[in-house]
């Protein structure tokens, strides 16, 4: 498995466990680079995977945030 997908799985686990709360920012690229000792491009690709999965959203000039949980529709 490519390193960016391994990182995406680790970060997704943090979101799913509730380590990172909805509508709160995730650590910056630089913080993740330092924590995992990997290249910034790897972090960017991992975050892009999380964005594609709907787990995070990015606000230009602000950062990347944990997406709120999907609302369930009551019948």
TrEMBL record:
InterPro entries: Bact_HTH_transcr_reg (IPR050679), Tscrpt_reg_HTH_GntR (IPR000524), WH-like_DNA-bd_sf (IPR036388), WH_DNA-bd_sf (IPR036390)
Superkingdom of origin: Bacteria
Ranges that cross the membrane: none
Pfam family, one: GntR
Domain HTH gntR-type: 1-69
An annotated GO BP: negative regulation of DNA-templated transcription
GO MF annotations in UniProt: DNA binding; DNA-binding transcription factor activity
Keyword field: DNA-binding, Transcription, Transcription regulation
PANTHER family xref list: MANNOSYL-D-GLYCERATE TRANSPORT/METABOLISM SYSTEM REPRESSOR MNGR-RELATED, MANNOSYL-D-GLYCERATE TRANSPORT_METABOLISM SYSTEM REPRESSOR MNGR-RELATED
The protein, known as: Regulatory GntR family protein
Organism (species): Pseudosporangium ferrugineum
